[in-house]
Amino acid sequence: MAKPKRRYVCQACGSVSNRWQGQCPDCAEWNTMAEEAAETVFSAKHDLSGGGRRIDFVALDSPVPLPVRRKTGLAEFDRALGGGLVPGSAVLMGGDPGIGKSTLLLQTAASIARAGGNVVYISGEEAAGQVRLRAERLGMSDASIKLASATSVRDILTTLGAMDAADLLVIDSIQTMHSDQIEGAPGTVSQVRGCALELIRFAKASGTALVLVGHVTKDGNIAGPRVLEHMVDVVMSFEGERSHQYRVLRALKNRFGAVDEIGVFAMEGHGLAEVSNPSSLFLSGRDEPLAGSAVFPALEGTRPVLVEIQALIVRLQSGATPRRAVVGWDSGRLAMLLAVLEARCGLSFSTAEVYLNVAGGYRLTDPAADLAVAAALVSALSDRALPARSVWFGEVSLAGQIRPVAHAGIRLKEAAKLGFEKASGPPEGSDKVGSGKAGSGKGMDYREMSGLLNLVDRIVGSQ
Predict the structure, then answer these.
(1) Which helix (H) or strand (E) holds 453?
(2) Claim to verify: residue 178 and residue 203 sit in the same structural domain
(3) Which of 28, 81, 188, 281 is the Cys-Cys partner for 184 at CB 3.0 to 4.6 Å?
(4) End-to-end CA distance of the chain, in Å?
(5) C-alpha–C-alpha distance, residues 103 and 77, integer Å
(6) Co-location of 95 and 110 in the same domain
(7) Is residue 349 included in any domain, yes or no?
(8) Could you tell me if residue 56 is inside a domain?
(9) Mean confidence (pLDDT) of the chain
(10) Where is the motif RadA KNRFG motif annotated in this sequence (predicted)?
(11) Which domain covers residue 413, as residue numbers?
């Protein structure tokens, strides 16, 4: 009898090797190669063209009624989902430990159960008594949730098959699930992939909305094979710093709605509270204009969020190498912007330490933040405050020009709604002001900027 072949699978990326290695050759992670049973090799003589069950086709205009979304009871969660949970869908939610994933899903389960829905909550990490203790602390003990602590997928599917179809099934977490048909410990690539496949198959057949909680790696990516994100319909990331109050629920993939939509929550004593106006959360304490502070109207999906960008410039007396510290923005983009300000505007930052911070722990990826960052840097360098109740947005090119950005009207409308009176941005944004159309910043004093030289002249020559 032929000796069975051994294979080693990376627990971080799923790469397969015939021999053990200390470092994965694909993802460069150390000590992640684990031995697993080799896959069964089928002979090429097997013909799959017959013997199966014929499938039925459905036309796009078929009169069969479409599934109706179910509201979760949390408007911010529904917004990130694209309008609510779709029956038969699979949602994967990842986030750092202690960020509030279980709390959010427990609140969602309680809200749906109170509305008359059939909710099943399976915890593989906590005992049922521990979940009940958290529910009592959050004031949700009266919700009729079917709660259990289990890790065997066979036991879970057998139990669910004997019950009425659930409206919501929460699995916390997929890395703790185990199938007796697959070799390997819970959390390995084969176990996570196999267990998720069986649970998703059950959700599609029964019309149950399935939510899987996923662990994350030290880099913030969802642990397990990357194929897991392709198997589900929605991938969500629950982000935020535990030292800050706010939490952001971000949709990274959504087959039923827009991508990059966010829901904003605030962690309070009774659980997660919805933040309907996130701009007020990130702009608190702005009574007096200060040097080095600029307001930027960011855009997350279709939602505008006003955030404060703070800059500090410290001149060095000795020949020490100056530091560049960034929190909440790309450090490489800051270096590029400093180079443009020196080369195109004649400003000197080479002998000064530069510190940049996005207030409230918010993380910016919008390229339209270039002008606001530049305004904060010039304001800090000249020690002159920017005009009160003003916003800044626009992308900066290497030539020092201000380039247009998407959805200028939505940004201006949000700024006007919060009482801001002045805005500075690219020339193409001027047609969004005073037009009276929906989505415009009607009544705002909009100032066009074609280049960074206009920005420097406006700030330095303002006083």
Answers:
(1) helix 452-460
(2) yes
(3) 188
(4) 89
(5) 13
(6) yes
(7) yes
(8) no
(9) 86
(10) 253-257
(11) 281-460
Low-confidence ranges of the chain (pLDDT < 70): 1-4, 37-50, 219-220, 223-225, 242-243, 260, 281, 284-287, 319, 429-443, 462-463
Question: Which pair of structure tokens corresponds to residue 428?
Answer: 């193409």
Structure tokens at 268: 């309070």
Q: Long-range CB contacts (< 8 A, 24+ apart) of 61-66?
A: none
Secondary structure of residue 430 in the 3-state scheme: helix
Whether residues 346 and 270 share a domain: the answer is no
The answer to pTM > 0.85 is: no
Task: Give the pairing of strands 303-315 and 293-300.
Answer: antiparallel
Percent of the chain with pLDDT over 70: 88
All residues at 6 or more sequence positions from 44 whose CB lies less than 8 Å from its CB, including other chains? none
pLDDT digits (tens, 9 = 90+) for 97-119: 888 999 999 999 999 999 999 99
Give phi and psi for 253, each to the nearest 5.
-150, 135
List residues forming the annotated binding site for ATP.
Answer: 95-102
Assign residue 208 the CATH number of its domain.
Answer: 3.40.50.300
227, 323: one domain = no
Identify whether the C-beta of residue 430 lies closer than 8 Å to the C-beta of residue 404: no
* Residue 338: strand, helix, or coil: helix
Q: What pLDDT score does 372 carry?
A: 96
Q: What is the reported pLDDT for 47?
A: 64
Residue 53 lies in a domain: no
Residue 48 forms part of a structural domain: no
Q: Please indicate, yes or no, whether residues 322 and 272 belong to a single structural domain of this protein.
A: no
The tokens of 113 are what?
A: 């159960």
Q: Is 304 exposed, middle or buried (0-12, 13-18, 19+ CB in 10 A)?
A: buried
pLDDT at 69: 92
Identify whether the C-beta of residue 86 lies closer than 8 Å to the C-beta of residue 257.
no
Q: Same domain, yes or no, for 20 and 80?
A: no
- Whether 225 and 313 map to the same domain: the answer is no
Nearest to 285 by CA among 338, 384, 359, 184: 359
Q: Both 297 and 328 in a single domain?
A: yes
Write out the two tokens for 374. 């530049």
| Residues that constitute the known binding site | 95-102
Residue type, 379: S
